Every structure is written in C-alpha cells, then in structure tokens.
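Extended Data, panel c. Modelled sequence:
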Amino acid sequence: MGLNPHAGDSGLLGKEELEIIKPAVDKAFEQGKLVYGPYAADSFFGSGQHRPFDAVLAMYHDQGLIPFKSMAFYDGVNFTAGLPIIRTSPDHGTAYDLAGKGTAETVSMRNAIYDAIHFVKNRWQFAEDFQNPLPYTEFRRERFRIDF
C-alpha cells in the first residue's frame, strides 16, 4: 500500500511513494521477488485489486486491518511478518467483552493457532533444508556426472 492518500497522486500529496516506496518495490522485483505497488489504500480493497495477491503489506495498522476485518472478521488471521518469533492473532482482536460468556466465535482463534503452527513448521523445515547447502557449482557437476 502507499503511505499517502491516493498513493501520493504522482507526488502531489507526498513524495514517499516516488522517492522511497516505488524504488524499493522495483529493486525487490529486479531481485526476482513478485512484489508490486504501491497502491492507493482507499480504493485497493473496494475495487477488488487485492484478489490476485497472496499477501498485502500495509504501511500502518488501520490501513490494512480495517478492510481485512470487513472481509474476514470471523475467520481471518493477522500475521506480523519479520519478527524473530511467530506472531498471529485472531482478526477480531481480544474480544474482552465476550470473555467467559461462551458466546465468542472461535474460528479465527483456531485459525490463528493453526497458522502459527504451520509457520513454525515451515521455519524448521527451511532451517533444515538450508543447514548445509551444496554450492551450486558442485550441484551442477554432480547432477551431470555419469559413472561407467
């Protein structure tokens, strides 16, 4: 998402998109990452622009959480990326007003727990897979070697 209204409107409403965000997106894309943007936050979700993406990076909490909660309040999961620990939470928040009443919808909480387990397992698998990587040049040589 863009930081400024209308993603800066080509510099009219702020230059962060042109000077910081877009160059960072372009650099990541050149490095082979499938990243796009920045997009205007006020129309991104309502116009359906979010549909082709697996994830959306918001510049601040309410920019991303308000539309997300509107679409997936009872089953959505908030995941905070880039932390040394796994952090997930149910989309609906703490729901203190429902605590102890037996009336809370539990799908989002269960999804947050299951997603956290999935992320932990993925981190373990990644660490195991890349613990002792074979250099590419050795891999190539071994891959095309023929023993007689």
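Residues 107-129 form the longest helix (23 residues). This feature is highlighted in the accompanying rendering.
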